[in-house]
Amino acid sequence: MGRAPCCDKANVKKGPWSPEEDAKLKDYIEQHGTGGNWIALPQKVGLKRCGKSCRLRWLNYLRPNIKHGQFSEAEDKIICSLFASIGSRWSIIASQLPGRTDNDIKNYWNTKLKKKMMAMNPSLQRKPQQITLLSILQSSAYSSPSSFRDSNNISYYHPHGSFSYSSNLLSGNNTSASANSFFQAQESFIDPTQKCQFKDSSNNSMFLFGGEATATATSCSSSDGSCNNQISHVIEPEFGDASFVGGANNNIHPYSGVLEDNNTQKLMMFSNAGGSGSVSGWTDKQNGLLWEQNPLDYGLDEIKQLISTNNSCNNFLFDDKKTQERVTYF
DNA sequence: AATTGTATCAACCGCAAATGG
DNA sequence: TCCATTTGCGGTTGATACAAT
């Protein structure tokens, strides 16, 4: 028996707020306050929303004096200094920046400021480091299409360029549903009755998995190096030609894995998120070394080191005690 | 102009802490 | 002290906008 939901999910509206909903919530709270109970609030206001959703909408957008848009240099410095001092405690960081919300700061850090900090200190750029395939298979979890994340929250990416598919790359009579069943089936992850083709965007070749009528293995052999949607690899049903060398049964997220083609000794990574995801295309297996640590993916300690060696932030470093003293909790 | 890739950010989710009976 | 409920938080997702090809 799981945890009781905070509201009746079936009768609750989700997704973006309409101007009418915003107006209702804002008017009510300005006149009556929250009443100290967010869960009961939506009913009082006449909104089909979860109480948590109302709270978030009020705190992040509707309450007075919210500041949106460009962060100033001074704000950047405060954010990076506090991050170096206390880590990703966004609500505390937000309490030092009047008008800014924790969500805003978190988004800003994750999408812009972290990259900006790294760009300012190229000496700290991590050198690409190859790791063994085996170590990924034993420790990784799915992170995002094209990368794996290990138990230290470090992600690894395929070093040979971009490789993604969306459901419209599936050919023939396959649908995104069949793609998902391909990725999600954990024990026999290739359904022998389903034929799935994927396009390798690096050279426009196609590769094929499964299918009752097994195609003869063919390879891409065009003279100009482009395969133009020819089938370049065929994985026969029930692993005739390929081995599943990573996946759910190897402690990898069930939607991700690594295939090895026994004939060519090449490897391919796949991962999936909902109706889209990625496949890596085939890559030579080089003594078991395949993936590189993502040079953009820093851990907390490295970010702290980066910030503390960066002049732009040196004047703003706090110690933990002082930070605590200055924080006001509401 | 169409397609594909990438960045952004609002909103959701699950968990832990806080609260109160 | 216990337990149920609510609140707050941080991580993550997914729709959309924008950029690149």
From TrEMBL:
Keyword presence, Coiled coil: no
Entry annotated with the keyword DNA-binding: yes
Location of the protein in the cell: Nucleus
GO molecular function annotation: DNA binding; DNA-binding transcription factor activity
Name of one Pfam family that matches: Myb_DNA-binding
Gene3D superfamilies named in the record: Homeodomain-like
Keywords, comma-separated and alphabetical: DNA-binding, Nucleus, Repeat, Transcription, Transcription regulation
Listed SMART domains: SANT
Record domain HTH myb-type: where: 9-66, 67-117
UniProt-listed InterPro entries: Homeodomain-like_sf, Myb_dom, SANT/Myb
Name the record gives this protein: MYB/HD-like transcription factor
